[in-house]
Amino acid sequence: MGSETRWLEADELAAWKSLSTLLFKLPGVLDYQLQRDSALSHFEYLVLAGLSESPERSLRMSDLAGFANGSLSRLSHVVKRLEQRGFVSRRPAEDDGRITVATITDAGYDVLVAAAPGHVATVREYVVDTLTPAQLAELKTIADQILAKVDPDKAC
Amino acid sequence: MGSETRWLEADELAAWKSLSTLLFKLPGVLDYQLQRDSALSHFEYLVLAGLSESPERSLRMSDLAGFANGSLSRLSHVVKRLEQRGFVSRRPAEDDGRITVATITDAGYDVLVAAAPGHVATVREYVVDTLTPAQLAELKTIADQILAKVDPDKAC
DNA sequence: GCGGGTGACTTGAAGCGTCAACTAAGGCCG
DNA sequence: CGGCCTTAGTTGACGCTTCAAGTCACCCGC
Hints:
6 helices; DNA-binding
């Protein structure tokens, strides 16, 4: 198809490999810590965190899915499991029966509060405190540039 | 539990959120393109690529797992499926019966060669060509620093 | 040269994510 | 107000990853 492939130069390849490895390993580390210390996946943590920061500690499913960077389907499964564990409750919105509003329960809030310090410490240990403030700022710029390509709509 | 939690500052949090979102979304984009155009997952692609670059187009399972950043168990399942599809073959090493050597077949090599341009183009589109050379270099430095924390052994 | 330990995988079961239906409520338009 | 499209969410099946257990092969000491 069309033009010749522009293969990666040595330095481009090296950078890509480093990023690629990071993409594989970092999620694993974060999940591992949360799972071990709080029996939560990173995604479940984000769901609980999202709810806890919202007014009424509630959010409609679609908004929560966006916040946690997951599909609606994935969220639906996860919320069902969290509900079975007693961490979240669900009910239809009064004004629109199609909408489901999820709310974090007191038990869920307790779990989140217990999990947060360890999670933040892990993020600090592996990412934030490993980099200089300038590097962290640059990382944000870089990540945002890539994300703008990945999903152009949601760009700020 | 010792000291007070050091929560993230606003700018630290913003940077972390950007990275976190990147961690969620980039793998999806890469997997999607490979799956759609070549019926391969990113991991399967890495496995084939690793084999194709090695002497005799072969590698022992452990080394291949390291190359592709996956567990031995995961690799074993994936190689079994690739073998069923005719892209890879396996045999025990002559000098040590515990070791399994995987080899990419001609059919597998063809698939890889067909998949490579599209994959490289995707990597360029979303990452390499989105950043300046300086940013790319900085990204490599940053990723390597984090990786050094994540798994200190494998550091260069 | 044989029993116990270690190394290198392989396997099976369990859990999670994705995709493609499916359900059900709202809105619209004649 | 009755059909039809759209929106929001749920569900089930399938595939993949993980984790724990299992299988051989090699090695070491006695």
